[in-house]
Design goal:
With 154 residues, the chain is of the alpha/beta class. It has three domains: 49 residues; 38 residues, no CATH class; 59 residues, Arc Repressor Mutant, subunit A (Orthogonal Bundle). The chain contains eight helices and five strands; from the N terminus they run E-H-E-H-E-H-E-E-H-H-H-H-H. The strands form two sheets. The protein has a three-stranded parallel β-sheet with strand order 2-1-3. A two-stranded antiparallel sheet has the order 4-5. Helix 5 packs across helix 7 and helix 6 packs across helix 7. The model has no long low-confidence stretch (mean pLDDT 79).
Length: 154
Amino acid sequence: MPVGIVEFTAEEPRLVTSLGADIAWHSSSSDVGTALLQAPVETVVLHVRFQEPKGLIDTVRYVKDLNPGTRILLAASSSRALVIAEIASVVSTETWKRDQLTERERQVLALIRTGLTNREIAANLGISVSTANRYVENILHKKAVRNRAQAAAE
């Protein structure tokens, strides 16, 4: 599904990494007309900087868990405009990070799940113990868990 991205922020977005090859074009808001004429798309993503109000994600998840069929809308307003959008899904930073494990991190995680220690993982993969330690730390951070058992359980 080709998409176009209209940037309202100067930050290099994770969005570009996530969508990858599906991006037909990337423009500023002032150039969107030209982009649409040159490469029509099925979807336009308006990329804005979003400061998550405390508890927003947890509230959305709670409502969805309580009643999965509930339609959830998000309203954003300023002194000049009101925007209302339907929330189709929520992907938290933790989910995004978890999906971004490298191939080697996935190998290490598989060995963690078999119960191997970092020293045994290092020997199994032919890497140093300090490198194995670093892979385990990266996995714990990306999966937003506190220990190996939690990482293995996910």
